[in-house]
Amino acid sequence: MRNILGFRIRNLREIAGYSQKELAEKLNISNVQLSRYESNNRKPDPDTLILIADFFQVTTDYLLGRTDQVREFNFTYSSDQDIKFINRIRQFPNLEQFINDLLDHPDKMKKLQEIWKIIRTD
Question: Which residues form a coiled coil (predicted)?
Fold first, then answer.
């Protein structure tokens, strides 16, 4: 897909449940800029691309269409359903903090990865 960057930005925004205005405010860019990125009328500069990737906790390679795999919490995700699930986790700060705390404990993280394989649906 040639215009994958705009598609992926819009898709991530919609999955996360943000309007263009809300996301633009969170990224500290104008709504017009975001709209142009999503419609592929303009490409974000490298710093803004990194800002968007960091916000959604995806790689810039994913945004640019160089890979279909999304990385987050040391897991590899391959579907929009995975991204949607992670964004739901973010709605519960205690759960997100619990998962972030696990990142410092490789043995516990391995257990969480095993659990993830069980509850993940395709």
Answer: none
